[in-house]
Amino acid sequence: MAVSMGTFTIVDMSDARTLQLYIGSNLAKYQIYNPDNGTLNPSWASTNLVLTPELYIAGTSTNVIATTAVTSVKWFKDNETTAITTGGAYTISGTNNHILTVSQNVLASANSVNYKCEVKYLDATTNLTTTTISDIAFTKVSSGGGVTIAIAQTPNGNIFKNAEIASLTGECHLFRGNVQDGQQISVQWYAQDSSVTTDQGGGIGWKKLTNAANRYAGVTTETITIYPDAVLNVQTLKCVIKDTDSTSPTYNQSFSDFITIIDNQDPIFCQVQSTGGNILKNGEGSTVLSAHLFQNGEEIDIDGSTYEYRWFKYDKNSQLVQDWGSTGVDYKTGKTLNVGSNDVDVKSTFEVQVI
After folding, report:
1. What is the dihedral of CA 271, 274, 278, 281, to 10 degrees?
2. Contact, 293 vs 301, CB < 8 A?
3. Residue 133, in any domain of the structure
4. What pairing do the DSSP bridges indicate for beta strands 179-181 and 168-176?
5. DSSP state, 253?
6. 298, 317 contact by CB (below 8 A)
7. pLDDT at residue 177, as a whole number
8. Is 3 domain-assigned?
9. SS3 281
């Protein structure tokens, strides 16, 4: 059984401690726009969007965003260089002015909006200030005239932070236009699992979930309950909703969306770093991915001799690439992984399992 796993992320390297910054949202990353009547669902004007960053030292489970070690928190919209301040659509609040509330439908005049959070953290051990950045994007989905889509979200957050959080929930709903439809549908949740080599209903690389004590509940409903034992560092879940209404124009069609759950309680945390960023332009370029393990805030297994590292690849459609390592072997091994343009067709996701 794997003791840890990780997926590719972008990391700002410095001599200070490695920081992890997450942005929690109380609403889904979509607003559904109905061009027939010009409405957005949900309306941020009536149900405000609240973005709350959480900052962790790698390998620890304590959120330090509201501590005195955080010397600055700034929010930016899209590519703007001037930080957001309270006024108009925005309110800045929280101990370190770290919470951003959006009270207007910003997407009424745009197809997407990206909010970036920049945090400065003073490491008392090294007396170095580390700047870490995370962003979150929201999209306007036009769904008038009977267009049908599935939208998933984590209404109570997506991070297990400490023993006080007994469970998290994921929600996935079917929308026709911008109206939710919960009638005559079937729902099934799946977990990303590279050991699944046959299609169980969610595609190759996706394990069909069943209700299990201390792991999952409600796996065939629109609301799934996830317990800490089900998550090893990071777990991506897929919800597939099938239209079972024989009178519907989308009868027997399936619609899906994804959520990601993060566990900051495990004793070993895996972080993937890249030497060349996450973009290969015009089919050229390369990068080296490396897996780094942290325990109690310190990096372990630096030489890669304690654990085995298995790398799996998912293609642009989130399907596991079989025989990627060699015939009959879906993974490559090593603490580092060389990735070239031939390994990426539009988009590829690399997952490392630490055994």
Report:
1. -170
2. yes
3. yes
4. antiparallel
5. -
6. no
7. 73
8. no
9. helix
Q: Please answer whether residues 191 and 205 qualify as being in contact, where contact means their C-beta atoms are separated by less than 8 angstroms.
A: no
d(CA 139, CA 133): 20
- Read off the pLDDT of each residue in 240-245 and give the average, rounded to a whole number: 94
Min mean pLDDT across 182-186, 193-197, 262-266 is at 262-266
Spell out the residues 6+ positions from residue 261 whose beta carbon is closer than 8 angstroms to its own.
Answer: 154, 158, 159, 160, 168, 170, 226, 230, 231, 234, 235, 236, 237
Please, which pLDDT band fits residue 263 given cuts at 50, 70 and 90? Answer: confident
CATH of the domain at 64: 2.60.40.10
- Are residues 278 and 246 both part of a single domain? no
Cβ neighbours around 156 below 10 Å, total: 13
What percentage of the chain reaches a pLDDT higher than 70? 89
Q: Which two tokens stand for residue 303?
A: 């030489």
Take residue 353 and report the two structure tokens written for it: 């399992």
Report which of 85, 139, 137, 130 is spatially closest to residue 116, judged by C-alpha positions: 137
Mean pLDDT estimate for the chain: 86
Chain-centroid distance of CA 191 in Å reads 13
pLDDT value, residue 217: 97
Closest CA to 270 of 156, 331, 355, 157: 355
* Overall number of domains in the chain: 3
246 assigned to some structural domain: yes
Residue 3 has φ and ψ, to the nearest 5°, of: -90, -15
- Asked if 226 contacts 170 with a C-beta cutoff of 8 angstroms, the reply is yes
Provide the β-strand partners of residue 74: 118
Give the pLDDT band (50/70/90) at residue 303. very high
- Which residues span the domain enclosing 236? 143-265
pLDDT band with cut points at 50, 70 and 90 for residue 266: low
Query: Alpha-carbon distance 8 to 352, whole Å?
Result: 8
Please check whether residues 46 and 77 belong to one and the same domain.
yes
The pTM for the full model equals 0.60
Q: Considering only CA atoms, which of 111, 179, 112 is closest in space to residue 145?
A: 179
Rounded to an integer, what distance in angstroms lies between the CA atom of residue 279 and that of residue 229?
Answer: 34
pLDDT of residue 283: 55
